[in-house]
Design goal:
Layout lengths: L18 H18 L2 E8 L3 H10 L4 E4 L2 H8 L11 H5 L6 E6 L3 H10 L2 E3 L10 E4 L2 E2 L8 H6 L4 E4 L2 E4 L3 E4 L7 H9 L5 E12 L5 E3 L11 E4 L4 E4 L3 H29 L1
Parallel strand pairs: 5-12
Antiparallel strand pairs: 1-3, 1-10, 2-3, 4-10, 5-9, 6-8, 7-8, 10-11, 12-13
């Protein structure tokens, strides 16, 4: 059947497409900021949270942030010595790769680096995040949970049951292992246990300075790991840092314990028969 000429798709959204005009406005804004501010920084965001980024913007109201549209911003700076709007900016534009943002500021280099090195906000890990710690639940009662949540915990994969109205772990259980990707169920369990694994932070990658026209690159600083194992007991959480050799020994011990548990259960079944 031929398509009717009256059959037209009409969008009900009030949002207008940016198009060429929006890109031209962005180029103009970026070039105005180059004239206004003394320094430009390229930064990347670890564990992006829009609410946290908004807090950073509010704290730096004296400066200007741009996030996204790398190719348009690179065009605004200039991609070659002939098209750059100020000395050295074409080198700076090559750093706009992957998911990065740009900070325009007149604050000194030391003030900016010091502030962002100290700034970080903790949050609950989400599905797909990499676990920074191994989390284990001990066998026994979990007094932090209400009896009403027991069915939900079972759906999330925890071996629990109600004993005298108290949520109880029937056996020890590993919620997640370090450096493994979290599933939706694991992320929900960690949130219920109030274990925070995600850390929102901003890493400075390079800086351009107006006076000298030089582009300097910052070294990547690895943040110190305070713990990589969490053990949840009846009414407490024990945080610890375990070396790689200790991990191997503990894994062997856990395998031996599991084998013993299986043997005991088999003996009990044989006796019952």
């Amino acid at each position: 059947m031929p398509k009717s000429k009256r059959d037209k798709r009409i969008s009900l959204t009030q949002t207008k497409k940016g198009g060429l005009e929006a890109k031209q406005n962005l180029v103009t804004e970026v070039r105005n900021c180059v004239e206004k501010y003394d320094r430009i920084f390229v930064f990347s965001v670890c564990n992006m949270r829009n609410s946290k980024l908004k807090e950073v913007r509010n704290a730096w109201k004296h400066s200007r942030f741009f996030f996204g549209k790398n190719k348009v911003m690179a065009l605004a700076f200039g991609r070659s010595p002939e098209t750059e709007i100020m000395n050295g900016l074409y080198k700076f534009s090559t750093k706009l790769v992957n998911e990065v943002g740009v900070l325009f500021t007149s604050k000194s280099k030391e003030d900016v680096v010091d502030w962002f090195d100290k700034y970080s906000e903790h949050d609950y890990a989400r599905t797909g995040n990499i676990a920074t710690s191994t989390v284990e639940l001990d066998e026994g009662p979990l007094v932090q949970f209400s009896h009403a949540i027991e069915p939900h915990l079972r759906k999330l994969g925890l071996p629990v049951a109600l004993k005298k109205g108290v949520v109880t772990m029937l056996q020890s259980h590993t919620v997640c292992k370090e450096n493994e990707k979290l599933t939706a169920e694991q992320a929900k369990v960690l949130k219920l246990l109030k274990i925070v694994m995600s850390q929102f932070s901003i890493h400075l990658q390079c800086m351009w300075e107006k006076d000298s026209g030089e582009c300097s690159v910052f070294d990547v600083k690895e943040k110190e790991v305070m713990f990589n194992k969490v053990r949840v007991t009846t009414d407490d959480q024990v945080y610890d840092y375990v070396e790689s050799e200790q991990k191997e020994n503990m894994e062997v011990e856990n395998v031996v314990k599991r084998e013993k548990t299986v043997r005991r259960s088999l003996r009990i079944k044989n006796k019952s028969h």
